[in-house]
Fold Restriction endonuclease.
Amino acid sequence: MFELDEFQNLIRLVDDAETIHEKGQRFEELSAYLFEHLDGVEVIERDVHMASEEIDLVLWNAQTEEVLRPWEAVILVECKNWSEAVGAAVLDNFVNKVRRRALKIGIFIAANGVTGNFVKGDANDRGAVGILRSALQDGLRIIVITMDDIRAVNSLDDIRDMVKKKYCGIFVHKFL
């Protein structure tokens, strides 16, 4: 059951984290909490380490939650609690993790968003938003969630609305 007090405490723990390890770990815990209370969603794996890469969260989507019915059964989540926006190379790495697993949907949670300015129509943009645009052309749908988005959550309905808006937004190039 989603508990607002517990959720807000997790946000405080993220804000109070001091070491890089602590910041990453707490951000992943907050990110997991964001999704694991949706109907039919379960965090199956955390911090999966493979020979050449890591996956922060692997979600199982039983597709019983209305907003996630069009989504695949397996959803990869990347968490970046950085003090600045995440650049194209890091986002491209995540897009390729999704692609290598023959998945079509991923969630990129970046505390301070991603670089780029495509929303304003800069077709020459080489920032991370340009990577999202290119991924969409290849059939990959990656939503980006920021800490501001997370702070606006007060209920499960807020999570549902956020996911719906982020998902629909990628089709009209509103990635952020």
Summary: Residues 4-170 form a domain with the Restriction Endonuclease fold (CATH 3.40.91). The chain has a mean pLDDT of 91. Residues 20-36 form the longest helix (17 residues). The chain has one domain: 4-170.
